[in-house]
C-alpha cells in the first residue's frame, strides 16, 4: 500500500468516520486531491459501534415486543410470547446490515478517487501529516478522529462492566442490567435489553433522564419505562462499580448498592485528541480535550480544520457529515454557511423514541422574550393508537409566530424528524403548516393538528 501514498494533497483527512469520509467525498466532487488516513475501518463509530448496530439491536427488540403483544391483538400464535433470544442470530443480523453499508461506503470512496491510507496518522506540522514512516504534505488538514467512551477512574471494564462497545459484543442479553447514565446511550441500550427480557435499572445522576431535552419528553420516557417494568433512579450518582466472577455491584451516592449481571457505563464520550501531535503543531485544545475552533471549524493552526465529535456540541453522525461537507466546501472556496448546532435534530431511539429539533419552550422564552407551545396528545392520533403507543407532539412558536422548536415522544416518532427539521429550518409559521393536508392515518398528523391548534383552527382537538 505504501507506494500508493501520494506525497502531497489538497486535503488530508485524519479519521474516516462520519465527518472524515463526508469531507473526502465532497472534496473529491469539488476536484480536490484527497488523502484519507484511517487506522481502523472506514465508517468509524457510527457504522461499526454506534448508530447502525444499536438501531439494528433495537429493531430486534421492537419485533420481540410485537410478538409479545400479538395475542392481545387477536393473533393466535403457536408459541406464547418470546421463548428466548438467539445471540448469534441477532449478531448475524447486525453484521449483515453493517457489512453491506461498509462495502457500499468502501465502493463510494474508491469511486470518488480519494486515496485511503491505512494506519495511525499524526499532525507533524500544520501542513504535514505523518503515517508510519511517510509524511504527506497538505494544503489543508481536517482532524476528525472522533470520540471514545468515558470510563470513570477506578472502574475496570471486563465481561460484566462494559461501555456501549462491549455491550454490542456480549454473547447474550444480560439477565439483570444496571445502566449508569440516563441519557441517549443508556436509554437506547436499556430499552433494547428490556424488550429482549432483561431486568433493567437506569441510574442517572441529574434530576431527570434525557436531562438536556425538554422536561416533558424525559418525563414521558420515564413513565413509559416504568410501565415496561424498568426501574429508573434519578438524582443519585453512581460512585463505584466492582465486578466479581458471579456479579457486579454498583454503589450509589445514597449509600445503597445494586447487584447486576452486567453494568453498562454510559456516562459520555470524550474527544479522541491525545497523541495526535495537535498541541505541538499549534492546534489549541480546550481543557475538555475538544479541539478549539471558530464557527468555520478553523483551528488555531493555519490550514488545520476540525470536525465531528471532537468539536464541542452534539456528538451526532449527521452533524459530522455536515461538518465534513462544510470543510471541503470551505477549502474549495465556496464560502458555505456554517453548521448551526441549533438546527441539528436530536433523536433517541427505543420504546418510546424522542425527537427534538430547535428550541424548547423555556429556551424560546429566554431567546425571544415569550413563547407559545401546544402539545398534541398521541391519544388523538389514529395511527399511534393502532401502533399501541402513547406520547405527544409539541410545537413551540416565537412571539412573531415562527416555529422555534418541534418535539415528539412516542414509538416510531423518529420518522417525523425530517418534517420537524423542515418546519424549524425553513422558518415556517404554524399557519403555514396548519393549511397543509397531512396524510391520514399517519403520526405526522400530530404535527399538523398541533399547528392547527396554534393557528386557532383545531380539528381533532378541543378548542
Ligand atoms: C452506541 C452509540 C450509538 C450512536 N447512535 C447514534 C445515532 O443513532 N445517531 C447519530 O447521529 N449518532 C449516533 N452516535 C454518535 C455517532 O456515532 C458519532 O457522532 C459519529 O460517529 C462521529 O463521527 P466522527 O467522524 O466525529 O468520529 P468517528 O465516527 O468516531 O470516526 C473517527 C475515526 O477516526 C479514526 N481515527 C482515530 N484516530 C486516528 C488516527 N490517529 N489516525 C487515523 N485514524 C484515526 C477512528 O478509527 C475512526 O474511524 C452513536 C454513538 C454511539 C457510541
Ligand atoms: N440516537 C443518537 O443520536 C445517539 C445514540 C447514542 C449516542 N449518541 C451520542 O453519544 C454521546 C454519548 O452518549 P451518552 O449517553 O454516553 O453520554 P451523555 O454525555 O449524553 O450522557 C451521560 C449521562 O450520564 C450521566 N452520568 C454521568 N456520570 C454519572 C454517574 N456517576 N452516575 C449516574 N449518572 C451519571 C450524566 O448526567 C448524563 O446524563 C452523546 O453525545 C450522544 O449524542 C447519540
TrEMBL record:
Disulfide bonds join 46-51. PROSITE patterns: PYRIDINE_REDOX_1. Residues 344-451 form the Pyridine nucleotide-disulphide oxidoreductase dimerisation domain. NAD(+) binds at residues 181-188, 204, 268. GO terms for molecular function: dihydrolipoyl dehydrogenase (NADH) activity; flavin adenine dinucleotide binding. Binds 1 FAD per subunit. Residues 10-324 form the FAD/NAD(P)-binding domain. The active site is at 440 (proton acceptor). Belongs to the class-I pyridine nucleotide-disulfide oxidoreductase family. This is Dihydrolipoamide dehydrogenase.
